[in-house]
Write a structure and sequence with these properties.
Layout (H helix, E strand, L loop, with lengths): L2 E3 L9 E3 L2 E9 L2 E3 L1 H11 L7 E9 L3 E6 L8 E5 L2 E5 L2 H8 L9 H7 L13 E2 L4 E6 L4 E5 L13 H23 L4 E4 L4 H12 L5 E7 L3 H13 L2 E6 L12 H11 L10 H9 L8 E2 L5 H5 L3 H5 L8 H9 L5 H14 L14 H16 L4 H5 L3 E2 L6 H8 L3 H4 L3 H12 L15 H13 L5 H10 L5 H4 L1 H9 L12 H12 L5
Parallel strand pairs: 1-8, 12-13, 12-15, 13-14, 15-16
Antiparallel strand pairs: 2-3, 3-4, 3-5, 5-6, 6-10, 7-8, 7-9, 10-11
Helix pairs in contact: 3-22, 4-15, 4-17, 5-6, 5-17, 11-12, 21-22
Length: 523
Amino acid sequence: MNKFILNGNNAFSWIKSGNYYFIGYCFDAEELLIGNEAIKYILNNLDKNPILNGIYSLISVKEKEIEIIVDSVNYFPIFFLFNKSQWIISDSWEIILNEKSSFIPNKKVEAEFINAGFVLGYDTLDCDIKKTKSGSKIILDSDGNQSVITNWSFLPDAFFDHPKDKLVELTFNMFNAVQDRMIKFLDGRTAVLPLSGGFDSRLIACMLKDCSYSKVVCFTYGKPNIEERISKKVAAKLGFEWHFINYKELETAGYLETKDFKEYTKLAGNGYSMPYLQEYFAVKYLKENQIIPDDSVFLPGHSGDFLGGSYIMKTVKTDTHNKQLPKHLRKKYFWFFDKKDNKAIENRLTESINCPEENKISTIYNPYIEDWDIKEKYAKFILHSSIVFNHFGYKHYFPLWDTNIVEHFRKIPFEFRENKTLYDEVLISKYFNKFDVYYDENEIVVSKKLLKHQKFKDSVRYYFPWSYVLKRMKKNDWMHYSELSKPMEVQTTKTGFKKLKRYKTFNAIICKWYLMSLGFYEN
C-alpha cells in the first residue's frame, strides 16, 4: 500500500476525488477551473495539450502505477521515495525525510546549491528523495521503478514571419486576453502588486488600470533607491494606493528564532531551493499592519522581461556547440574560483541538460539555454519565490506566465527579442504612454553597449581585493540582503564553519545557513 502525505500550504489545498489528488487551478480558455472541474479538464485535454494554462499538480493512482502530472514550472513539486516496497509521496521534502528516518546528504549538489540557490534536475538535498520537474510527467511503478516523460519545452518549433508592426499588434492582443483572465481570477478581491521601478510590474499596474480595477494596493520594499521613486510615481499617476517598506527601518532582530520564519523555511526551502528572504519581511509587514485584506491576491511580475528577451544577449546569442553547453551555463549562471567546484557543477549540468548533440534551430542563438533556464532557475528559484505569498495565506496569479503568452513569445524571432526590443515597444507604446507612466530620463534601458560594459565588469571584479568587491556589493544592495543575511552568517560561524569568501551574491550565505540548519554537514 502506497503512502500519500499531502499538506498543501496556507493558500492552496489538495482535494481528493476518487483515484486523483489535485492542487492548483487551470483555465479552459477564459473559464477558471478548480477542484473536480480542473481534474476532468486536465484528463480530457492532456493528449491534445500536455501543458495547460495554470499552476497545478495532479496525481493519478492506477492499479500498477502512479502518474504525476505537473505544470510548466512545477509550482507544486511532488517528492517521492520507494521504501519498504511502497512509494511514499508528499509535497513536503521534510515529511518524507522523517518517514525514512535518516538524512543522507547529497554532497554532489552542494556546490550548485550554494552558488545558484537550487538543486539541479530531479534531485534534492537528500540522496534518496527525488522530485518532479517542470514540463515533465513522472510514472512510478509497483516495483519501485520510475520513468520520466518530457511533455513540454520552450524550444521553438516555428517562428512567426510577420513584420514587426504586426508582431506588436499580436502581442498587444495577447496581453489584452491575459487581462480578462487576471480579472476573472481576482473575482473582486484586492489585487496586491509588488511594484518595482521595472517594466513587468508596471505593465500589470497598467493592465489593472485599463480594466478600471480599483481594488489595488501597490508596495515597494528594500532601501530607498531609484526604483522606489519610480514606483511611487507610477502608483500615484494610476491612482493606486502605494506603500514603501523601508528595510533599513524594519525591526528584524531575532527573526531566525521565530516560529513563523522556521515554518516559512520549511515551505520555501523544501529540500531543493533557497528560502527566499526578499519579500518575506514586506509581506509580513503588510499582513501584521492589516494593510491588505485576508483574501487578497498577489500579482508578481515574474518572467515578463525573460520572455521578452532579457537573456538573449547575455546567454542565448552564442555559437556555443551543444556539447559545450555545460561549460557555457556554468560560466553564465554559476561562479566559483575552485576548479574542483567548477568541474562538479559542469558534471551536474550535463545530467540536467536535455538536448541533442547539434543545435539545428539556429547557428547564432542557442534556444536550449532558455529551455534549461526556465526548467531550472526560473521554475525552482524565480517563480518559486512566490511561495512567500502562500505562506502568509494569500493566493497569487502569474499574469505574465500565462501559457498563451509563453507560447506566443516562443514563436517570436530572436532578433525581435534581443534587448527586449519588441516587448519594450509594446509596453511603452500601448500601455506606458497611454497612462503617462514612461519616464524616459529615469528608465534603465539595457543597450548593447551597457550590456558589454556590464559583462566586462563581471569578468574582472572578482580579481580585485575581496574587501573592495564586498564594499561594492553592499553599496548596490538595494534589498538590504547584506544585513538581513548577517544573522545567518553569525549563526553559521558560531557553529564552527568558516565565513564564505568571494561569493557572487549574498544568497550564498543564505544557502550555506540553510544547509547547516538541516544538518547537511553532520553526516
